[in-house]
Amino acid sequence: MCHTNDEMLEMFEATLRQMQTPEEPKLLYTPIIYSMSGGGKRLRPVLLLLANEAFGGEAADAMPAAMAVEVFHNFTLLHDDIMDNAAVRRGKPSVYAKWGGNVAILSGDAMLITAYKLLAGLGGERLARVINIFNDMALKVCEGQQYDMDFEQMERVSVEDYILMIEHKTSALLSGSAMIGATLAGASDEDIKKLYRFATELGLAFQLQDDMLDSYGDEALGKKIGGDILEGKQTYLMVQAMSRATEEQREVLRNTHLREDLADSEKISRVKALYDTLDVKHATEQQIELRFDRALTVLDSLSVEEARKLHLREFARNLMGRKK
Amino acid sequence: MCHTNDEMLEMFEATLRQMQTPEEPKLLYTPIIYSMSGGGKRLRPVLLLLANEAFGGEAADAMPAAMAVEVFHNFTLLHDDIMDNAAVRRGKPSVYAKWGGNVAILSGDAMLITAYKLLAGLGGERLARVINIFNDMALKVCEGQQYDMDFEQMERVSVEDYILMIEHKTSALLSGSAMIGATLAGASDEDIKKLYRFATELGLAFQLQDDMLDSYGDEALGKKIGGDILEGKQTYLMVQAMSRATEEQREVLRNTHLREDLADSEKISRVKALYDTLDVKHATEQQIELRFDRALTVLDSLSVEEARKLHLREFARNLMGRKK
After folding, report:
1. Which value does ipTM take for this structure?
2. What pairing do the DSSP bridges indicate for beta strands A92-93 and B88-89?
3. Are A55 and A302 in contact, with CB atoms under 8 Å apart?
4. Which residues pair with B88 in a beta bridge?
5. B contact set with A (CB within 8 A)
6. A115 → chain B, closest CA residue
7. What is the predicted pLDDT for the residue at B206?
8. What is the mean pLDDT of chain A?
């Protein structure tokens, strides 16, 4: 009855391929097409469409909103890549690297406006509700990016503040997408609130797992280990370690990445040795399980029949790379 | 009966002073308050409110939209100042100069989203119509900025292309504001179209006059002469001069600003001497009069009583610095 994750992705990609922009000015619109056709997992539009269908919505009706959240997501990547000075995105040159900062700023702006143009295509009385959710989501994502940049300048970040940051930077776009999908299908306020909690917890589990894989991922699976450590990034492992460390250990945690006398592999193994000593991997795994369990529990409580929750559960598992 | 320009400005400033943003993250929201309280003529919100009142609207109802266009305008300034590497804005350090590019990008993004939040406050069935006008206006402004940057890299720009650029970069925000104001008051499609033409022509007259004052302004009035010439900017005078010049004269027009052997005053007088030879000042004055006349003629044809057009006419004259 309902579409699987793969079927939804396929329908979304088909719509995306039809996306058109004006021809001129070329330097404004070419980077938009480049960015949107650069792949990615399309997590947010797929979640929006699955949440919509779970409450009886038609994918075709929700497609403009699904496009809007994907365009918005790609807008954030254009601007984030300038701020993070990132030359590569999805294995290709970032817009910033390919065309320069000015083009990335302005094309990004045009993408944000384009997202609203897509939303406006929804029309009707649903528009006001959807735009309100979208605005709050979008502002939260900006706040998350600012917190993230603030943290890079801070010696020490509390575990609570770190969770708050990724709730803004990673979860908000997932929870907003789920809420918009459900809103378009006419779900109850209570169910919409549940979807918010589902996607928020899932986003946290996903980001914490991403943090963990940077230190404990499987290099055999092509995962490069230790990038966050070498950049001195704040991650869940780092903030947990800092909260458990002695003054002397903190010194090592915060300054190892700056030492010019150490090889990269040595820096990584020193920090990881401390993570092991402080039992940080275990604490992170526990937190991931806690968040993932909460997400699935909230999902169970949605007021729709079991068959309609199936593909949202599949989405959650796919996101975490789990079979069951 | 209707409010004067000064009264409207006063009402708008009073609303603006009440504007609130979240406290945190500080580096996201402080620049927004800094930018919004940095003065400026508030042309766009005042035009919106005047157009609204001309068709029987209440200023209080249109105030969220007036705030939205002013926030949008200030968003464009934040991002333009990065792209133009501009350190000063309204006699104070630009956000870009004060906090750096990353803050100017992200706070600008938050302002664009905030503009939509303000619009969403309008609610009701008007929302869809207003958002459509706003989206088209916003995208046109981005296109205008890109054309402007493209032109800086071009040897030669046609007069038509230059007019098209300023129609996007300068007129679109004025015409969009006027249309939104009238739409909120329930004006007919025909009157809204007329307001579009009024504000488009007025914006062109305003920008062309601005171009002219750079070369022929009154230094006694504190106007610094020749800034555009020294930057080698494309202006109406330059593109007109290029269209009338011999090959030899073109060489002088395009390369004088690059010559390191000439003093600034000498560069300016050489280019202005050619402007005089090619009768460019006169051509620009004619074009300004043509556009300004068209604007006032369209205004006369609005389907409201004369008393209701009074303050829009006052707006047009104020903008051009004219008594009558």
Report:
1. 0.96
2. unpaired
3. no
4. B93
5. 22, 24-25, 27-28, 79, 82-83, 101-102, 105-106, 108-110, 112-114, 116-117, 120, 123-125, 127-128, 131-132, 135, 138-139, 142-143, 145-147, 149-150
6. B135
7. 98
8. 95
